[in-house]
């Protein structure tokens, strides 16, 4: 098995994690009040206020007269963005909440940039043993459920560009074996879904399906993350059916926006 990635640090600093997540929320969503941020982070309002005040001090946020915190100069490139990622995230959140309500597992939406996959939305379930929010995390695309699904949608010539050996001259070990990857992607195209058993993180299993544009292009991956001790292969078909239903509903919402 490949060495798992994203292992939590031995000395987890919750305050730093909260600040980084808050900055990500402001960057991708455009703004939040203290109460909204406290709810998103799962902290007290006083804690959220202190986090936001520090982000303002370091120019990661600005505080409007309407008491809304927004992305500051450091993050302003994506502030108030109407990009595809912003629209995807806004449209997906209700469906992620619905998935969590049905499956009681953490649900995610992921996009691909080059050879990486970025989680742009994540809704945690309420079980005591659960996979935490992945929002803002970035992984090698070939190690994630959604990343593999999005790679599977690429024509061979574009896949070769993504994994051009010239891009890995200083890190050859990070380049996946092309033949093995193509074989795996062909299987994913046939199946229409992907299962990731501890490829990105130890103790985690993820199941995902693609979200497509009107022309059939895969835009994102919709997935659930499950502690491996709770994953039951006999539930796979049910998990996939729930995800596919949510993906089709999200696709309809996106088409309605256009």
How many H/I helices? Answer: 8
- Compute the gyration radius: what is it? 19 Å
Structural class: alpha+beta
Number of strands: 8
Low-confidence blocks of residues: 77-82
The percent range for helix content is 40-55%
What is the name of the CATH superfamily of the largest domain? GAF domain
| Order of helix and strand elements from N to C terminus | HHHEEHEEEHHHEEEH
Gross morphology: globular
* Largest sheet composition: 6 strands, antiparallel
Number of domains: 2
CATH level-1 class of the largest domain: Alpha Beta
Proportion of residues in β-strands? 15-25%
In the sheet with the most strands, the strands line up as 5-4-3-8-7-6
Q: CATH fold name of the largest domain, please?
A: Beta-Lactamase
CATH architecture label of the largest domain: 2-Layer Sandwich
Mean pLDDT: 88
Distance between the termini: 43 Å
What does this structure look like?
The protein has 258 residues and is an alpha+beta fold. It folds into two domains: 14-78, Arc Repressor Mutant, subunit A (Orthogonal Bundle), CATH 1.10.10; 84-257, 2-Layer Sandwich (Beta-Lactamase). It is 42% helix and 19% strand. The protein contains eight helices and eight strands. The chain has helices at residues 14-29, 34-41, 45-57, 84-103, 145-152, 156-162, 178-191, 236-257, and strands at residues 61-63, 69-71, 106-113, 116-123, 138-140, 194-197, 204-212, 218-227. A hairpin with a 5-residue loop joins strand 7 (204-212) and strand 8. Helix 1 (14-29) packs across helix 3 (45-57), helix 2 packs across helix 3 and helix 4 runs antiparallel to helix 8 (236-257). It is globular, with a radius of gyration of 19 Å. Mean pLDDT is 88; it is low at 77-82.
């Amino acid at each position: 098995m490949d060495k798992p990635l994203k292992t939590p640090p031995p000395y987890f600093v919750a305050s730093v994690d909260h600040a980084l997540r808050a900055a990500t929320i402001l960057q991708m969503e455009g703004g939040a009040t203290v109460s909204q941020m406290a709810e998103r982070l799962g902290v007290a309002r006083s804690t959220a206020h202190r986090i936001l005040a520090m982000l303002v001090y370091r120019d990661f946020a600005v505080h409007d007269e309407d008491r809304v915190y927004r992305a500051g100069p450091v993050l302003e490139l994506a502030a108030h963005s109407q990009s595809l990622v912003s629209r995807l995230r806004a449209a997906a959140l209700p469906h992620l909440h619905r998935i969590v309500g049905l499956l009681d597992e953490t649900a995610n939406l992921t996009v691909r940039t080059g050879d990486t996959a970025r989680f742009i939305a994540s809704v945690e379930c309420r079980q005591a043993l659960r996979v935490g929010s992945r929002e803002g995390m970035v992984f090698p695309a070939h190690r994630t459920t959604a990343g593999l699904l999005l790679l599977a949608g690429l024509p061979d010539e574009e896949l070769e560009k993504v994994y051009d050996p010239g891009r890995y001259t200083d890190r050859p070990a990070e380049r996946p074996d092309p033949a093995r990857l193509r074989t795996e992607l062909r299987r994913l195209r046939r199946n229409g879904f992907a299962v990731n058993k501890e490829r990105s993180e130890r103790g985690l299993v993820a199941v995902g399906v693609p979200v497509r544009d009107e022309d059939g292009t895969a835009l994102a991956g919709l997935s659930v993350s499950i502690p491996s001790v709770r994953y039951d292969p006999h539930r796979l078909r049910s998990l996939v059916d729930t995800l596919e239903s949510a993906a089709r509903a999200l696709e309809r919402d996106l088409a309605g926006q256009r």
